[in-house]
Give the backbone structure.
Amino acid sequence: MKLLEDKILKDGHIGEENVLKVDSFLNHQIDVSFVCELGKEFYRLFKDENITKILTIEASGIGIACLTAQYFNVPVVFAKKTKTINIYSDTYNATVHSYTHKRDYDIVVSKDFLNKDDNVLIIDDFLAKGSALTALLMLIEKAGAKTAGAGIVIEKAYQGGGNLVRDMGIRVESLAKIKSISKKDGIVFCKQ
């Protein structure tokens, strides 16, 4: 998606350890009108899939998922990183390894909000090594629901997570796929 690639080049920057920072418009401060355009694109890509729920993970995916869900007219369910006292029901659980935080954590979704009748679209901001995405897929499987696919804003193709999930037979649509990032060479996108 050229609009997104242009925004990354204009407003994103490369931080320490060649980390792409898009916090000025995507995952800390949200440019709502811009993210609505991303949501429209996810809708265009998945509109024929009869989506009943959008699933994401706390916290950065929530805003993107909500702005996408308005086009599908479906609820957003987000996996919490900790089970809190206000989750009274049984939960589906999975473990995620965070490369950013360098630790494992459990994610939970209440069984009240995900079930065998659901056709789920996963929405998330980044896909790198695939740990968060595979954990969300595990929650969907535990619920007996169907996975329609995954909509990813930015895929770091050089880290292999997208191919890992695609090899599982899951449809992954990434709006921007990055081939490489370095302070020396900048951001290089995969040819679409």
